Each structure stands twice: as structure tokens, then as C-alpha cells.
Amino acid sequence: MKAVILRELFWLVISTVLSLVLSFVFLELLELTSSERSLKPIEKVFSVQLYLIGCFLSFIAIYIVRVIISAIKMFTQ
Fold it and tell me: CA 74, 61, 45: angle at the middle one, nearest 5?
């Protein structure tokens, strides 16, 4: 039981860190840049919202891939 909890905690931390990194990739793929040198306050809020959406989507995608891989492992054994 302790090993299962430690493994899930490990995956939680790893997926959180990966989702933070992948959210930057998400923002870079959208290529939403301002034509001005500095961002307006509403653009800053929008950028933070997009970053949080990217984090959330990346976190969910990591867990979906993890579930799919564990299902494939279960069916092949």
C-alpha cells in the first residue's frame, strides 16, 4: 500500500512539473504576441489565463497517457 501511494505521489509531482513546462510550449504554439513592447493589463491577464489552461490540459493529457500505457501493459501480460 505504501509503495502505491509513493508511486502516485511521484507521478503527481512529475506531472505537475511537466505540465508547467508543457504549458509554455502550448503558449508558444499559439503565438499570441503583442505588437507593442509592453503588454496591456488585459493582455497580461489573458496570458496568465492561457498559461493556467495550458497547465491544466497538460496535466490531464499526462494522466490520460499514463492510463493508456498501464492499460496496454495490463492487456499484454
Answer: 165
